Amino acid sequence: MRRDALYLALLVGPVACGFEPGGQGSPFVEDAARAEVDGVADSGSVDPVDTSVDAGADTVDEGTLDPTWTEKAWAYRRRIDVDGSSLKGDLDGFVVPVVLTDPGLAGKVSSDGRDLRFVAPDGLALPFELARWEPSSGNLMAWVRLPKTGPTQPNTFFLYYGNADATSSASPAKTWESETAVWHFDEVTTEGGTTARLVDASTLGHDGTQNGSATAPGVILGGQRFDGKDVVEVDKPDEIVLGDVDCTFAVWIKTTEGRQQGILIKAKGETHELGDKLIGTGHEGPYFGTDHGWVGFTRTDVAVQDGKWHHVAWVQRKDDKGKAESWKLYVDGVEKGSGQQETRPDVAGHTVRIGAKANGSYFDNPWSGDLDELRYAKVARAPAWIAALERSQRDPVAFSKVGPEVAR
């Protein structure tokens, strides 16, 4: 066999990185949640992602075959390929989820994950947030920022591990540098509690304080469940700007509640007044919409209060037509509503609360249902970006394909 052909065969060797039904209790992307996203009823069970690889069968000694092994002190690596065919355009600085479960990683990766590295083929270190590493089970979940990804890009990078002398290079701040707030909602919370902190992964300090919500299965890792009276109070609310700016709001939602209810409210407590900003579901039907107090309201035409996971997003572009901002609303990665409003600047002193209501508004009930992966950015994201958010999080194992282990 030719040398280059042998190397290609090594890279594309047997990989088991799909969803395997039948297990219980995985902390990773929940099969039950994925089934709901894909339109299948929730069976009540939570199945794990099984991306396990038989280390004995699939670990190969690469030796000197590959001159591109850039991390010389690392013993192992895996190739990761992003599914560029699912992307609608090139994206700069997009953050992809990487999910892997392999018990064989135990003993090869440091117990604290400090030797994990994500690296481009040319040796460029990629910023990443290590969301979870469990040595006992080999469960690994990370968010990795790529310089560029798209349908015409190489879309390949590597996971290196196996260096006991390494120090951690994880950097959530660099990973999420284009976002203002990122709430994964992975924290363990107890229903009715008021002390848990829901961390803003951007490290910019927009952490939230639990007020009754509870841990629930999410789309990626855990989510938060709200029972119609819970809220999360967000720190530094003045920095979550929703009026007269470029901005993007995106979140996964799951609810069967048919009433008007708020997902995120920026207002004077529960008071509905001039200049408040409201995002929620249920006004004029089971739809996702946004309302700026005494300015305007826009909604989609797709039902989302059906007990299934839906990715919803609102994008505002400042002064898109004169002084009027354009609004685009998305459901499951597809634009489903639009409008133009001359929005008012935010009101100083208004609070930001997740799962809250504003009395007398179009969203006058607190959220009843589940939320996961809520993000806010002071950027008007392109349609291709919104589509990639939904696609990558709906099925991260298929989106970022992790190859077999290769030994140095």
Plain-language structure description:
With 408 residues, this protein is mainly β. It has two domains: 3-170 and 395-407, no CATH class; 181-378, Jelly Rolls (Sandwich), CATH 2.60.120. It has helices at residues 3-11, 31-37, 55-58, 172-175, 383-394, 396-399; strands at residues 60-61, 76-82, 91-92, 95-101, 117-119, 128-134, 139-145, 148-149, 156-161, 181-183, 197-198, 208-211, 214-217, 222-227, 231-234, 247-254, 261-267, 277-281, 288-292, 296-299, 310-321, 324-331, 334-341, 351-354, 368-377, 400-402, 406-407.
Features:
408 residues, mainly beta, Jelly Rolls, 2 domains, 6 helices, 27 strands, 10% helix, globular
The 3D shape can be described as: globular
CATH topology name of the largest domain, in short, is Jelly Rolls
Report the average pLDDT across residues. Answer: 88
Measure the end-to-end span. 20 Å
The profile of the biggest β sheet is:
8 strands, antiparallel
Number of helices: 6
Q: Give the fraction of residues assigned to helices.
A: under 10%
CATH architecture of the largest domain: Sandwich
Strand % is 25-35%
Provide the gyration radius in Å.
22 Å
Total number of strands: 27
Structural class: mainly beta
How many structurally independent domains?
A: 2
CATH class category label of the largest domain: Mainly Beta
Unreliable residue stretches: 1-65
